[in-house]
Every structure is written in C-alpha cells, then in structure tokens.
Amino acid sequence: MEKFICIPDSFQGTASSLEVCRIMSRKISEVYPDSEVIAIPAADGGEGSVSVFLKVFGGEWVQTEVKDPHFHDVQASYGLVDDGRVAVIEMASCAGIPLAGKTKNPELTTTYGVGQLILNAAQRGAKIIIVGLGDSCTNDGGCGMASALGVQFLDREQKAFIPNGGTLMDIHYIDKTGLAKELSGVEIITMCDIDSPLYGLRGAAHVCASHKGADTEQVAHLDQGLIHLCTRIKEDINLDVANIPGAGAAGGMGAGMAAFLGSKLKMGIEVVLDMVHFNDIARDAKLIMTGEGQLDGESLCGKVVDGVAKRAKALGIPSVAVVGGVGEGMDGIYEKGLTGVFPINRRPQDFSESRFYTEENIAFAVENILRLVRAYGN
Questions:
Q1: d(CA 69, CA 97)
Q2: In terms of DSSP bridges, do strands 319-326 and 340-343 run parallel, antiparallel, or are they unpaired?
C-alpha cells in the first residue's frame, strides 16, 4: 500500500490548512484508491495555530478575560491538549492586528494579555506551554507580557511601569525576582515563523512596524527602543538577545520570551513536526505534499514548506509544494530538499479573481501531480 503525507500551510485568506488537507487527501484517494493518506494541518505560530493543534491532537478550548492591545478587557481563548498537560496559545488572540482597530500604533499597544493567558494556563496545571508568535500589532519586546507575569520594569525614578513600544527607552532597570511562581517547572516553547534579529534593518521595527501603523519616524524610534531594551536585558539579566534567531518575531516578542521566561525559540513548523513524530510516520512514504499561498524568499526562513522540505530530504523522500503563487528569492528551496513547486492558477488572473477558485485550482494541480507520479514514480 502506497503512503502519502499531506502537510500544507494555509493559503491565507482563501483556504485554511485543514481545507487544503481535505482537498489533497480527496484527490490522492481518487488517483490512488488503496493508498494510506496521513493529513497533518500545519501552522507556524500565527493565527489559526491553536485550531490546528486541537484538530491534530484533540483537546479543548479555554476562554478567559484578558487585556487587549489597548489595555481594554477582551475575551481570548487558548487550547489545552494531551489531557491538559500542554497549552497552546496564539498571541494574536489578544494582541493581534485586528484588535488594534482603526487606530493602529505599535508605539501604544501592549502584549500584557499574552502574559495573562500564559499565567492562566500555568494555573490550570499545564506543564508545557507553547506560545505562537505572529500577526501581532505590538512592538514592545514582550515587556507587557512579562509585566503580567510579575517582571518589573523600573524608570529612572525607580517607579515600576508597563512598557510599550513607545516607552522602551524609559526602562532603567529590569527586575525578574517577582516572576510568577506558577511558572516554576513549566517548559515554555515559543513558535516563530521568522528568524529575524531583534533590531536593525532586518529587525522587528524595520521589517514589520510599518504594517502595524508606524510611519518612518516611528519605525526609527521603535528600533532605538529595541536596542535599548537589548542593552538592559544584557546588563540586568545577563543574556544577549540581539541576534538570537527569531528574537525580532512579533515586534521583539521572541526576545522577550527568551529573556524573561527562558523560553526556547523554535520555528513553528519544527514544533508541529516534532509533536506528530513526523520522521517516524513519513519514513516509508511515496510522496510528501506541502504548500502555502505564496512561496518566496521569506518561505526559506523556517516557514512550513521550508521545514517540510528539510525533513523530506533527510528521509530521502520526494516532496512537492502546491502554491498559490511564486515570488522572488524562492530558488533556494530546492537546495533545502523540495523536489518541485507547482503554482495552482490555471489561467492568467489577478488574485482578486483567482481567490474564488482556490479549491478547484488546488484540486486540479494535485491531481496532475499525482498522475505524473503514478506514471513515472514506480
């Protein structure tokens, strides 16, 4: 019996990873009726990651009241899997761009609610807390999150305050001694979808802050704030977070997770692959199918297709990516291990039109890949 592995990312805005899995599985069963199909919806830490974990592992949603990016009360949810032993949190649930509203400004927004979710999960008995970074409206280096967990940030007058992106420069000293005792013995894993440094031209502010509402002057100010935060972390916590891969993820939240919580930063897809024991289940597969909405240079920085390609190469199994489109800088994906890339659009169309045909376009591409594999893949 032939075995196929389906592990796509979402086609953002048009099809979730669950839906893409369903399409791929259906076409595989049609072309290879007696095959074994293992479908694994993938996520890299951004919005939708909790749904993926609950779908793959089972579990329950937990809802609680926390602070939103503007420090207003909001209902946010996270997932508990493995009988409550593992909690999965998306920072986007309480610090995501949609919650910023019409007044997007990363100098003012906070990650405080993320810390409240982490604390709630620990109080419920979770021993492993996975925090997905991505889709945030913040640039506070995780200081809001840390404040909710008992870390104190003191200004020059020794007054404690909750820093946001615009006030990072006011931090004079960081005191971790009040960190919540509930976190003792809890392993915290951070899922990142990018491996950028904390500051500089490739850092959090310069790469992403403009999408969160910052103008050119604000971007420069935010970057200076992250530089200052890095200095304070190095002096007060004895950790250099400047060039930790992923430190710049989600407005510097990666750096904050490492510095304040001692968290390991991992590419989101690597967390998923490890949890499903991917190397074991894929070892004798005929083909691994992955995919995403746009394959480009950023995809090579630890996103789903990149992670799957590397695992497939190590296992010596051919892998293909079904993608909505191809951008600049994706050629390196072949060196990572991907066998081929197959854009789905069947005719020249702008995305505003083609987005309505995503399902049938994916199905068409997958069927033709499988026909080729069946003819020549023995």
A1: 9
A2: parallel
Termini Cα distance of the chain: 13
Q: State pTM to two decimals.
A: 0.85
Q: What are phi and psi of 32, to 5 degrees?
A: -120, 80
- Domains of the chain, residue spans: 3-40+278-376, 49-269
Q: How far apart are CA 158 and CA 49, in angstroms?
A: 39
CA 39 from chain center: how many Å? Answer: 20
Token pair of 312 as six digits? 């497939």
User: Which homologous superfamily is 49-269 in?
Assistant: Glycerate kinase, domain 2 (3.90.1510.10)
Q: What is the mean pLDDT of each run of 10 residues along the chain (378 residues)?
A: 93 86 96 94 77 88 97 97 95 93 92 98 97 93 98 97 98 98 97 87 93 95 98 98 92 97 91 90 95 78 85 96 84 88 85 82 95 82
- 3-40+278-376: in CATH 3.30.2140.20: no
